[in-house]
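Input record, target 12 of the design panel.
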């Protein structure tokens, strides 16, 4: 505090001294110095300098911003259920290692006919975007969610998104979540998900060997990171708390509970239709 007062005092002394010269007049506004000069050249130079800095900053910010930030359009029609031309668009942002996300997806799988009928009756296209949100936010420090998301993206390249995605959810439930491992915040953590785990699932859904190269060489990492950035943007703008996150037309919400049944899936959809 004393140091700040000293600096303000110095500025005031300089301002008083400058008033005796013809070069610059100062006025203090809320502790800041605002200069005006009888010779406008200095002001012009400062203005141009600041303008250039601002322009450079904007160019860098825009060039580094993630592409495809339009959350209102279908990103990949290989990851949808329903008609592309449907009136209503429902997006689920998920993380394969999120047990709450997997419960929602398992309920839609186990009640597939009901789910598809609901979508059809209400003219909804349902889209899934897989992220590595847990890894990016230090809730999955081993990187399992990133590897799983990459694996799903690699399967999508072979037009088997749904086969691989559903089988991965079944496997994770059978091997871990149903046993209380990695099933909640306070549950024991999953410790042994290797590349081979995801490769085994690929064989179970009959993917060709190019899957292995795609996964081990991280060929779909950019896709995963883009999905994660879009999910983070949605959550920040809508003040959402975590995974799964949903965007339904102009309505956004997040969260699901491991004890909920299928009726809550339609409850989420209903909430969006009413907005």
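The sequence produced for target 12 reads:
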């Amino acid at each position: 505090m004393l140091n700040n007062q000293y600096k303000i005092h110095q500025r005031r002394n300089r301002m008083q001294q400058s008033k005796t010269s013809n070069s610059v007049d100062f006025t203090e506004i809320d502790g800041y110095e605002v200069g005006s000069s009888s010779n406008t050249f200095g002001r012009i130079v400062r203005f141009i300098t600041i303008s250039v800095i601002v322009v450079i900053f904007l160019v860098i910010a825009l060039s580094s911003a993630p592409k495809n930030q339009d959350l209102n359009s279908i990103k990949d029609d290989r990851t949808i259920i329903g008609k592309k031309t449907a009136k209503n668009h429902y997006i689920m942002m998920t993380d394969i290692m999120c047990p709450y996300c997997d419960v929602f997806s398992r309920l839609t799988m186990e009640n597939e006919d009901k789910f598809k009928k609901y979508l059809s009756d209400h003219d909804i296209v349902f889209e899934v975007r897989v992220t590595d949100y847990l890894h990016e936010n230090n809730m999955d420090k081993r990187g399992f969610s990133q590897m799983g998301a990459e694996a799903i993206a690699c399967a999508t390249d072979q037009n088997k998104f749904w086969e691989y995605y559903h089988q991965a959810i079944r496997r994770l439930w059978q091997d871990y979540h149903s046993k209380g491992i990695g099933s909640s915040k306070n549950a024991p953590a999953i410790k042994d998900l290797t590349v081979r785990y995801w490769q085994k699932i690929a064989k179970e859904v009959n993917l060709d060997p190019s899957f292995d190269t795609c996964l081990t060489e991280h060929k779909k990492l950019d896709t995963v990171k883009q999905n994660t950035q879009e999910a983070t943007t949605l959550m920040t703008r809508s003040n959402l708390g975590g995974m799964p996150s949903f965007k339904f037309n102009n309505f956004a919400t997040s969260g699901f509970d491991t004890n909920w049944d299928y009726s809550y899936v339609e409850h989420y959809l209903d909430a969006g239709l009413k907005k």
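Confidence is low (pLDDT under 50) at residues 1-40, 50-69.
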